[in-house]
Amino acid sequence: MTTMTYREAMREAIRQAMRADDRVFLMGEDVGRYGGCFGVSLGLLEEFGPDRIRDTPLSESAFVGAGIGAALGGLRPIVEIMTVNFSLLALDQILNNAATLRHMSGGQFGVPLVIRMTTGGGRQLAAQHSHSLEVWYAHIPGLRVVAPATVADARGMLATALADPDPVIVFEHGGLYNVSGEVPDPSPADLDRAAVRRPGRDVTLIGYGGTVPTALAAADLLAADGVDAEVIDLRTLRPLDDATLVASVSRTHHAVVVDEGWRTGSLAGEISARITEQAFYELDAPVGRVCSAEVPMPYAAQLEQAALPQPAAVRAAARQLVGVDG
Amino acid sequence: MAKGDLETVGADAPAGGYVQLLTPDGDRVERVTGPDGTEYSVDFTDAEYRTLYRDLVTVRRLDAEATALQRQGELGIWASLLGQEAAQVGAGRAMRPQDMAFPTYREHGVLYTRGIDPIMPFGLFRGVNQGGWDPQEYKFNQYTIVIGAQTLHATGYAMGITMDGKTGSADGEAVIAFFGDGATSQGDVNEAFVWSGVYHAPIVFFCQNNQYAISEPLERQTRIPLYRRSSGFGFPGVRVDGNDVLATFAVTRAALDNARQGQGPTLIEAYTYRMGAHTSSDDPTRYRIASEVESWKVKDPISRLKAFLEKQQVGDAAFFAEVDEQAKAEAIALRERVLELQDPDPVTMFDHVYPHGSPEVDAQREAFQRYQATFEGSAH
């Protein structure tokens, strides 16, 4: 059992993957000498050298496209994109190329590429660096999309992602990097199942990435209200683990999805639809959604906090569903 | 010597030379012939020299005030222009009133030369508003955060003024797009070069090569001097000593005048150095060595102009002291105004999603107001 931060867990995962397999390398902006804009790769340049820890020219489309080429040639690239907003410059490479080449080649080859990117708000980085666009990628067949919410998953998911024969997008919420936690077992994480982070009987709170701590904090508030909340961490956003969701809702009969994306066209909407399709008669109330306000993410701290899903809002939504507020 | 290099390279110039009219010691170079035969020189009155000096000192002092305010938690973030004052003031003063600028988030010096109240970027970085200057009134577009995106906006604007018949004469209009060395690797910037080239757009691409893209040195963006990139796109490029306000003025003025007269785009590489961090969020000691920073201190844009003014007896100790005092007073007054800027009400986040509202946003605003009201009277 080791205690470390989420950031250290990601770094440790990269380090172990690179030690274990010469084909693995990391590239992106500022990943080398600077150690990454969020400090994930600090010290890796010193250990692995500039061929395997590559500072790239400022071109997201180029370093994702080059990652595809390297993967096609047999390497196992890890590409770091500074934020999900910047990944839009590489969207053509990700959607029209990485995600489709297995299909377009008639199954001759896939693209074993891992793309890591920071997502989410709460750090005063304004409307061009802070959005939660996970659902854009979760929409795309051909990709696997994961969102480690715990330190253990930050440590364990990368190895599984690198072993995947297809492109995997790893979303790291910027608010999680400094969180400390235990890594009970550094072996590769199973990506196929959502996890129950807190068992409860009265309402299921569903989150992923940065909203898992929000849901857990809301569960604490609800406990004080006498409401016993279960918290589910989706872990993998594509494909979604419907079975875990349905099993939980079948016990609690109430669900609130907590999603930092915008509500319209959100993952929260997709999850709500699946619960309705598969567990409609288990529900005692409509599925609730607590999402970011549908505005460009404000830069001002107090506006940004008001725009993001907060534990108090999750609590209010859950109280209303279970009828605490009449 | 490669095609495009300058025969007279300038003191401390990188390989290939640059246009320099004022050496780091404050000695005047009368004129420099550019790679395409253009003669670069300036013909300022004593009062104009003194104004340029005052500009440089003032923008540096205001920038220092912003850095201090950020460190005190009064601004969320700040992108300092320290070291790039001459590049910005030279380019800004070279613009004619009708010329349009498309800046990045670091162009506080250009903003100042356009006559915009310097509190405006402070309000932006404090998070109380979005800056608020009128881009049309001041011919200075909003700060662009996305790296290189504004070069395409500038290209489109430049094509537009040609369609409006506003180019082709000595009093025509021109556009200047500001960006950095890192941006030259972005697709947007290269696409802007292609478009401006084929449409012969009245635009000046003004690249402040401050040697770093956050932590990444110039060698990660290019194998050749940046100004030479333009030749592949079919328009001229010239490198200027970006720490020399006179040369920057002369080169930018000539390029803008060419553009307004219908002679198409120019790429200017203003060779300079970012003396501070990329923004207040990073620590440059992690990626560059102190001796490199020291080597640029002797090329300081302000001290060389001060030395020149002293040698020419255009400025004396009393003048320099008065400029310092005025800049300080301006900075203190600005600080006081900044501290009085009120935080916006959170509900204002719904204000500018659509100009006339929308059912979705309006419903959210109402729900938010009801939710906010539940906290009234509580400590939260």
Automatic annotation (TrEMBL), chain A:
The UniProt entry, under SMART domains, shows: Transket_pyr
Q: Which cofactor does it need?
A: thiamine diphosphate
List UniProt keywords, sorted A-Z. Oxidoreductase, Thiamine pyrophosphate
Q: Which superkingdom heads the taxonomic lineage of this protein's source?
A: Bacteria
Q: Does the keyword Coiled coil apply?
A: no
Report the residue ranges that make up the Transketolase-like pyrimidine-binding domain in this protein.
4-179
Task: Show the Pfam families listed in the entry.
Answer: Transket_pyr, Transketolase_C
Could you confirm whether the keyword Oxidoreductase appears in this record?
yes
| Single GO term (MF) | magnesium ion binding
| The name this protein goes by in its record | Transketolase-like pyrimidine-binding domain-containing protein
- Species source reads Spirilliplanes yamanashiensis
Q: Which lineage?
A: Bacteria, Bacillati, Actinomycetota, Actinomycetes, Micromonosporales
TrEMBL record, chain B:
Essential cofactor(s)? thiamine diphosphate
Membrane spanning stretches: none
Q: Which GO terms describe its molecular function?
A: magnesium ion binding; oxidoreductase activity, acting on the aldehyde or oxo group of donors, disulfide as acceptor
Q: Name one GO biological process term.
A: branched-chain amino acid catabolic process
* Residue ranges annotated for the Dehydrogenase E1 component domain, each copy included: 57-330
Keywords assigned by UniProt, alphabetized: Oxidoreductase, Pyruvate, Thiamine pyrophosphate
Recorded hits in InterPro entries, A to Z, give:
Alpha-ketoacid_DH_E1_comp, DH_E1, PdhA/BkdA, THDP-binding
Under the heading NCBIfam families, the entry gives:
PDH_E1_alph_x
In Swiss-Prot or TrEMBL terms, this protein is called: Pyruvate dehydrogenase E1 component subunit alpha
Please tell me the species this chain comes from: Spirilliplanes yamanashiensis
